Backbone:
């Protein structure tokens, strides 16, 4: 069924007793043309674009938990396309354009809110670097505005402009950046893919990858073996483990990243704001809670919770940027497992194994990439060749040295 105002009214009048399931709960079939491992945002988006753009409908998404249990339902919901490097910016620009039409395409309210993303700068050198980035964004057709101190103060008056250590000189703003309700993205893609015939199978963990003569033949799962023509891995923080099932060792480390939500407050911060003198970012949800986060915990882990030292560090950074935060109570926090690549950029590519495809290396920033990642991964799988938008996200760049080091920080996951 289509969701609409009329449907809402009709169901309200009948006591909301007749809403159909958003997606089916199918048993796994013996064989699919394409199997995608991982029912996060990227896996579900890939399945949706395989079906809607490439006509591939005998497709399954296998998810070991429930939809939204991974990072897609754990992130701080920020979307933006404010990159510098040519390998990155066109890809994220495409993603932002897909976000802009997503709710209509999926017929699902994902609460896409283009409220603006502002990156603060605190030194002259940082202002120059941000001006350069803003110019690169504009050259790529994106929107960017360099705000001076007064213009910034009019938008976000509560910041600590005169902080003795980190005085705020201005900010680089992307007005079309913003937030999207994270788990609605998983649900929207799942529902739309299901409507096109894709089997979205929850509680089905892949435990092995079957390969014969260098070609993928299928997977073993907790719900039995499944054959497939092509196999896509989109398992984010678990990528090293699923790739190891196919004998691949990835240039990826898994790290915990925490997120925090405060008690509900009256509207007081309209944009997404990121601190330039430490790793801290903040927005306010439609329910009033402040949503924020900071650095990864800094050690390898598969636990979906973090440690107190990082909590303290995030809070300190937040209070340095916005002193009023010191009076706010934190209600909830959690962790997600990040697939940190060695240059901070993702991988969407074929692998040395025929018909095995890889989507990983999303670091802190894979949520905003969800639509373009699914779009490009579907293209790569359907055509057995990358699209020009993901041509730079090659797996072999770590061997050839053709890295996409957006931050210019080298192979240090904690600095990306
Ligand atoms: C706290 C936090 C804040 C973040 N904030 C932002 C942000 O503001 N903006 C942004 O752009 N990005 C952000 N990110 C990053 C972003 O959430 C991730 O990069 C992105 O969600 C990863 O892609 P995904 O949605 O497909 O991952 P996931 O949702 O993690 O999907 C992977 C799925 O694979 C499944 N899986 C793993 N192994 C198997 C197996 N063997 N068999 C079957 N299924 C398997 C997992 O259960 C999981 O559901 C944040 C992440 C965290 C943790």
Residues:
């Amino acid at each position: 069924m289509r969701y609409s105002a009329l449907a809402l009214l009709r169901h309200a009048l009948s006591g909301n007793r007749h809403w159909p399931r958003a997606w089916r709960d199918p048993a796994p079939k013996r064989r699919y043309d394409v199997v995608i491992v991982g029912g996060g945002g990227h896996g579900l988006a890939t399945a949706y674009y395989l079906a809607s753009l490439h006509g591939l409908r005998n497709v399954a998404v296998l998810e070991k938990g429930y939809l939204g249990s991974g990072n897609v339902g754990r992130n701080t919901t920020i979307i933006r396309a404010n990159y510098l490097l040519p390998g990155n910016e066109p890809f994220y620009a495409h993603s932002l354009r897909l976000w802009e039409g997503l709710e209509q395409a999926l017929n699902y309210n994902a609460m896409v809110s283009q409220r603006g993303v502002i990156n603060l700068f605190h030194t002259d050198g940082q202002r120059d670097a941000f001006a350069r980035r803003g110019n690169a964004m504009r050259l790529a057709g994106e929107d960017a505005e360099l705000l001076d101190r007064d213009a910034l103060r009019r938008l976000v008056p509560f910041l600590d402009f005169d902080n003795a250590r980190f005085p705020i000189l201005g900010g680089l703003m992307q007005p079309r950046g913003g937030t999207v309700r994270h788990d609605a993205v998983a649900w929207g893609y799942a529902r739309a893919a299901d409507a096109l015939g894709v089997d979205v199978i929850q509680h089905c963990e892949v435990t092995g990858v079957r390969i014969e003569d260098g070609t993928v033949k299928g997977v073993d799962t907790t719900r039995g073996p499944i054959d497939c023509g092509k196999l896509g891995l989109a398992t984010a923080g678990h990528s090293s483990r699923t790739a190891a099932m196919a004998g691949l060792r990835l240039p990826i480390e898994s790290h915990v990243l925490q997120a925090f939500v405060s008690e509900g407050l009256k509207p007081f911060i309209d944009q997404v704001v990121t601190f330039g003198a430490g790793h801290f970012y903040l927005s306010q949800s439609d329910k009033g809670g402040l949503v924020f986060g900071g650095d990864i915990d800094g050690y390898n882990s598969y636990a979906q919770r973090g440690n107190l030292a990082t909590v303290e560090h995030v809070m300190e950074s937040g209070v340095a940027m916005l002193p009023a935060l010191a009076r706010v109570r934190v209600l909830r926090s959690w962790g997600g497992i990040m697939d940190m690549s060695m240059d901070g950029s993702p991988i969407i590519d074929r692998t040395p194994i025929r018909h095995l495809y890889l989507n990983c290396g999303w670091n802190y920033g894979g949520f905003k990439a969800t639509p373009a990642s699914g779009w490009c991964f579907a293209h790569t799988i359907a055509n057995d060749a990358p699209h020009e938008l993901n041509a730079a996200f090659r797996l072999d760049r770590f061997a050839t040295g053709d890295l996409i080091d957006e931050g210019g920080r080298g192979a240090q996951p904690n600095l990306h």
